[in-house]
Structure formats: structure tokens, C-alpha cells
Amino acid sequence: MHGPNLVSWLLAALTAASGGYCLSRLRRAPCAPAEGAAGPAPDAGPRRLGAHESDLAEGLMGCGMAAMAVTGTAVPGEVWAWVYGPPAVLLLLAAVRRPARRAHRLHHAVGALAMTYMALAMAAGPGHAGHHAAAGSPALTGALLAYFGGYALWSGSRLLSGSGGTVPAAAAGLPRACRLSVVIGMFAMLLTM
Fold this sequence. Notes:
single chain; 193 residues; mainly alpha; two-stranded antiparallel ribbon
């Protein structure tokens, strides 16, 4: 976001690819319950709907992070705050109202709030030579770095221990790898503040 151009472009490529993959999964995995030989699976509907919601949130987050990393100071921070603030509030409300998938919704809400925080810090910081010196709180930045760093380690260890080398497990690990790359992108953006 505010680092060297090469780092910004690499971060943009990583998060855009991850976001694009998550958004492409929306077309391949319908929200309706799966039909089997014995009829619809009893719990397939909510699980698929949750996966659909997750793919949408992660896809938009990845593509938004890529755009934010590339545009830097060309787009005012207030614009990015308006892009990420409302989804953060909606995700928080959904987590409070519906206990199913609460932790996952809270994770996405923290991500959207972190993007809002970075955008507002970018808007408050003095700009020079095409870069912005962020004016964020070191304590909040440190807490977000700890959260996303810990989540990346936890998610990465689950990804590595879950595949076991089998093809179906490896295919199931691709969405996890996508989520992990978005979290790593968030961590990198926070580091550049």
C-alpha cells in the first residue's frame, strides 16, 4: 500500500488472483442445497450458503486490497473508508443476529474494519513523494498485526496438515490457500503503515 512499487504490485497480484478465484467460485457453487440420490442433503443448504457468503466477502476483500495497493494516494482514503465501512457494520450485525458461522463473520468484519482503519490512517497522514505516512495508532496496528499474523499461522498449519497429498483434499485446500493469501496480504498492508 505505501511501500516500494514492486512490493505494491506483488501484493496487488497476489490479492487480485485470490479475490478473482473466490469470486469465480460463486459461479461454480450454487447456493441451493445439493440433490443426491436420496434427495437434498439435510445440511447442504446452509453450508453452501455460508461458503457462498465467505467467497463473496473474500473475493471483494482481495480485489479491493489489490486496488488499494495499486492506487495508493490516487484515491482518497475517505473513499476507501466508505467502501469498507458499511460491509464491516453489516458483517458485525450478521454475526450478532445469527449464531451460525459467527466466528467466520467476525473474521471478515475484522478484515473490513482493518481496511477502514488503514484507509482513514492513510487519509490522516501527510503525503510526500507519492507515498503516505500513515497516522494510525501503533497499539491498534500492533493488535491487528498480531491477529492477522496469528490467523495466518493457524490457517497455514491447518492447510499443511489437512492435505495429506490426496487429490480431493488438495482441491479442498485451494479455497483455504486463497483465504490464507488474503490474510497474508492484509498483514503485509498493515506492515507498511
